[in-house]
Amino acid sequence: MYDLEPLHYAIAIVGAFFAGAINTLSGSGSAITLGILMEVIGLPGNLANGTNRVGILFQCAASSFAFHKNGKLNFNTKTWSIMIPIIVGAIVGVMIAINISNEEFKSFFKYVMLIVLVVVLVKPKRWLIEKSYTDQLRWYMYPLLFTLGMYGGFINVGFGIFFLIITVLIAQLNLIESNAIKNMVVFLYSIIVLAIFHFQGLVDWKVGAVMAIGQGLGGYVTGEIASRYKGMEVWAYRLLVIMVIFIILKTFGVINIG
């Protein structure tokens, strides 16, 4: 177990709250939480990856409840056809994650952050276009979703953005519907992924509980607001860009904090 100083608690809860908000509306909130776990609290890469899933689980549970309560999450055939291949892929992905070294994970994380930054900066308005298509999924969506699930089980950073690329830009779902499904599927596969990390001794539950408080609150509050008001995606996007740049500078050693 890692002992947290008061400053660590403050950074962890505030950062986790914003991560929960960002994950609910778009994705890559794990860029914040993994950065905090590794660069501020000092957890090794694999332990940070497993511990991060505690907050993700609680955030997705809270936001999914808010979306469902406000009629934005429906468990129909289309929803399950999206979620099932992702869940199966996530199980494969986590088995890869638990078998790599801390150094390999941390190196992978650094360069994934650069990719995430490019993805969020290129044509940001494409995420905000409302769509209403409800066609059945094309056959090629299933291998895409399975591969996406593998990635989510492995690291989860950027999963939300890649999920929205597939469901909004390719499958033509609207943004709110996609976000509701995204939060639910991450909640479901996080149950399995977290259990696997736990049995491998790769979860610090004390640190994870602190992150879960912030992410759960961020997910629920943002899910409520996003279900009722428009325009929240813009603010989440702006905060995401700022935090991704900050984590990149920290992981590459450009800036140093406690």
Offer a quick outline of the entry.
The chain has helices at 6-25, 30-40, 45-69, 77-97, 102-121, 141-154, 159-170, 175-199, 205-228, 232-251. By secondary structure, the chain is an all-alpha fold. The radius of gyration is 17 Å and the shape is globular.
Keywords:
10 helices, mainly alpha, 258 residues
Give an overview in words.
- With 258 residues, the protein is mainly α.
- The chain has helices spanning 6-25, 30-40, 45-69, 77-97, 102-121, 141-154, 159-170, 175-199, 205-228, 232-251.
- The chain has one domain.
- It is built from ten helices and no strands.
- Helix 1 (6-25) crosses helix 3 (45-69), helix 2 (30-40) runs parallel beside helix 10 (232-251) and helix 5 (102-121) crosses helix 10.
- The protein is globular.
- The mean pLDDT is 80.
Overall geometry: globular
The helix-strand sequence is HHHHHHHHHH
> What is the count of distinct domains?
1
Beta strand count: 0
* Major sheet summary line: none
- What percent of the residues sit in helical stretches (DSSP H or I)? over 70%
Derived structural class: mainly alpha
Low-confidence stretches: none
Distance between the termini: 18 Å
Total helical segments: 10
- Determine the strand fraction and express it as a percent band: under 5%
Mean pLDDT: 80
Radius of gyration: 17 Å
